[in-house]
Amino acid sequence: MLKLVVLISGGGSNLRSLLEAAHDAEYPARVVAVGADRDADGFEHADAFGIPTFSVPFSSFADREAWGDELLAQVQQWQPDLVVLSGFMRLVPPRVVEALAPNLINTHPAYLPEFPGAHGVRDALAAGVDRTGASVIVVDNGVDSGPVLAQRRIPVLPGDDESSLHDRIKIVERELLVQTVLDIANGTIDLEQEPTA
Hints:
- By secondary structure, the chain is of the alpha/beta class.
- The protein has one domain: Formyl transferase, N-terminal domain (Rossmann fold).
- The chain has six helices and seven strands.
- It has helices at 13-22, 43-48, 64-76, 94-100, 120-127, 162-185, and strands at residues 2-8, 29-36, 53-55, 82-85, 104-108, 131-138, 148-155.
- Strands 3-2-1-4-5-6-7 form a seven-stranded mixed β-sheet, sandwiched between helices.
- Strand 4, helix 4 and strand 5 (104-108) form a beta-alpha-beta unit.
- It is globular, with a radius of gyration of 16 Å.
- The relative contact order is 0.16.
- It comes from Frigoribacterium faeni.
- (6R)-10-formyltetrahydrofolate binds at residues 64, 89-92, 106.
- GO terms for molecular function: phosphoribosylglycinamide formyltransferase activity.
- N(1)-(5-phospho-beta-D-ribosyl)glycinamide binds at residues 12-14.
- It catalyses: N(1)-(5-phospho-beta-D-ribosyl)glycinamide + (6R)-10-formyltetrahydrofolate = N(2)-formyl-N(1)-(5-phospho-beta-D-ribosyl)glycinamide + (6S)-5,6,7,8-tetrahydrofolate + H(+).
């Protein structure tokens, strides 16, 4: 059984999908804790499933490295097999990535390497493309530059704005994340064998 710690910053819709999947006795992964860099609304989902939560507010620390050290300590006390950044909107310091790699994955609302960074949906619309996508990647020390584990194309529809397009991308992100965790748990994806970027 794969033990997961999920890190969020907002509403936690991807987290909710993982919690629902893991509630099925046949699903080979369990969320053991949910953490955030603020008091996130998504903690409600963890509470609903009886999952412990922790918060490491960035503003409580002198710098990113001190914050990262505390975040890593909080994560490691749960001894997870896999850490999932699920709408976690803060870059983690290199030593956190190095301590957890390659068992640190992230979802991104674009078909990487297209439109990396915090505004993937907005950037796709601004570029005028007719399709974008969703990706699940291994986290490295770049910005959305790690090896891609899974991705799927999503059309940009006439009249789409950032909200409507992001809503459709989130549906696919959730499906990809649940499947990717399943594939890691059952050995279809071997993170130790993934090429490092």
